[in-house]
Design goal:
The chain is an alpha/beta fold. It has five helices and four strands. Bound molecules: 4-nitrophenyl phosphate (4NP).
């Protein structure tokens, strides 16, 4: 079993989308050996479901999102195998938690796996228009799929 945690700022736009995209992809692959969750470095939106604009865009792409926003906790660095941040400011916020340094090797940017623009930030669509949500969806989808083939597919095959 491997555990993946997507991290953004509010946990209502980018990271719950990445969570939904990976869960959906695992279902299509029949891979039951991966657990997926998401969280935010802030507690601005704790308890809320994903932003209605994110949910609408995801549904237009065939993915129904359901997640209660929660804040990143120190124990997440212990419990999860992969912590994938949406942008560099998320990583800077993660650094403030006690267990970050010891688990630095579990942390990467989601877009380290983006074949089109590796290492870039996933743009924050919260203050932008509708165009932003589809752009974010496409970035997240291709990065999640390439993360899966690099890090999760081989594990699945070995079970
Ligand atoms: P997310 O987007 O980090 O992708 O969930 C944001 C959501 C809310 C805020 C910022 C970013 N906010 O400032 O409330």
């Amino acid at each position: 079993m491997k555990k993946v945690l997507f991290v953004c700022l509010g946990n209502i736009c980018r990271s719950p989308l990445a969570e939904g995209v990976l869960k959906n992809y695992l279902l299509t692959k029949g891979n039951r050996f991966v657990e997926v969750d998401s969280c935010g470095t802030s507690r601005y939106h704790t308890g809320e479901q994903p932003d209605p604009r994110t949910r609408k865009n995801a549904e237009q792409n065939g993915i129904v999102l359901s997640h209660q926003a929660r804040q990143l906790e120190d124990k997440d660095f212990i419990e999860f195998d992969f912590l994938l941040a949406m942008d560099n400011s998320n990583v800077n916020n993660m650094r403030k938690l006690r267990s970050f340094e010891q688990n630095r090797n579990k942390v990467s940017l989601l877009r380290d796996f983006d074949p089109q623009n590796p290492g870039a930030d996933v743009p924050d669509p919260y203050f932008g228009g509708d165009r932003g949500f589809q752009e974010v969806f496409e970035i997240v989808e291709r990065s999640v799929i390439s993360f899966y083939s690099e890090k999760l597919e081989s594990i699945f095959r070995s079970y």
